[in-house]
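Narrative of activities, Objective 1.

The group set out to show that a structural description can be obtained from nothing but a protein's sequence at a throughput compatible with the screening campaign. Below is one input-output pair from the validation batch, recorded exactly as produced.
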Amino acid sequence: MTTAFDPVDLAGTPLANRIVMAPMTRNRATQGGGVPTDSMITYYAQRATAGLIVTEATQPSVVGQGYPFTPGLHTAEQVAGWRRVTDAVHEAGGRIFAQLWHGGRIGHPDVLPDGLIPVAPSPVAAGSQVFTEDGMKDCVTPHALTDSEIRATVADFAAAARNAVEARFDGVEIHGANGYLIHQFLAPNSNLRTDAWGGTTEGRIRFAVEVTRAVADAIGAHRTGLRLSPGNPFNDIDEPAPEPLYTALLRAVEPIGLAYLHVCDVPDHELLGRLRKHFTGTFVLNPAGDGRPAGPEDLALIEDGTADLLAFGRQFLANPDLPRRLALGGPFNTPDRASFYGGDDTGYLDYPALQA
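Output recorded for this entry:
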């Protein structure tokens, strides 16, 4: 019987176990520059016993930034800063993927330089608020990307993936979930376009497919993962009938040969099972839901074949040595709200892109 503590080969990257540290926004990069800091080195190295670490959301461009103090992968300084992180994780025996994320309409001009405003598929403001250095503020009406700007954004993702390899990451995860830019293209309430980037199912999945192909072409499909959250309403997303769209999306990316598919925050668990049939590669599941963090009771999902790897978020904040504690059956520090808002190991501000 396969267990969460068995090693696994992830498309050529050997993992010591099947426990993944889920991506969690931590807001610890330098102000303005988005360069990883010493606290980030400590934070990730502490958790290197995970089979795989997926980093906090990392923007591929200046306008992709949605929150203050998030890191980037689009400047030489950011690449150098991340290299310090990856070196520390590798020295501790770990493996680490960078999560590439574009906030899209989830952002605010106060977070962006030079008079920029957030961008999105359509000029539709999210009915939610975002964190800024001056507190929570309403999302603004975003600039609708033109065809050429969409193509440039696809290129930004590919360039950031190449930068990730230069920074010695083992691979990247494309963030197509939780209401950010890729998810905004997928959802009918945020993508009102009638051109080739919207309107039909094929149009709405096109951006996700082209980003995934571009990244895989840039660094190899074996180093590329994709994260999705079908039907998740976070960040004012409304997907009343997600199954046909995500079925089409998975059929489109299946031939690429991705390292893995990472699924999180799916309200309909039966839908999750049906969708998985359309992806034959490695399946990573974040089983958290209904306000409950993933925990030791979820290890059986590896044993019964529901998932190939399990992603844990909040438990990794409270328990940096989580794989050891899971293997021993505890004891576990209890995740609490303070750990999401500045109470973790170095006390920096933490914004709640913590759906794990």
